[in-house]
Write a structure and sequence with these properties.
This protein is of the alpha+beta class and 153 residues long. The chain is 31% helix and 37% strand. The two termini are 25 Å apart.
Length: 153
Amino acid sequence: MSSIFDKNLIIKVAESLEDFLAMRSVRTEVFQSEQGIEPELDFDGKDEISDQIIAYLDRQPLGTARIRYLDDRTAKIERLAVLPIARGKGIGKLIMEKAIALAVQKKMQEVVIHSQEYIQGLHQKLGFEPEGAVFEEAGIPHVKMRKKLGSTY
């Protein structure tokens, strides 16, 4: 059984100015408009040294995440955002899978995330394990999570 996503959903590494503008618009809507996060906390100057994943459905941006490389063995996936109209359809999971695959391709040994507490279950289904206590980041409860990479993914 195929879905509309099979033909019209594209999840890719951002390459063009259009992709970067799309990433910014998704993050602005989700983090600033919806969650009230200050723009300077979201756009912290680290986008330029990170890989960006962008999801489009029929050429409309729906979701994004960035991958920052902390050292030669650890990647950090952050800024996962999916527009409200696209939530609950598995797009966040697909973006995370693309980000993890990119980390594997770059021979990273582990991925860390600071997951908003309410979506911790999504990340656990992808093999992330919680570490330590819940903490606040930008006024929102988060949990640090880690996934070892290698032959298992």
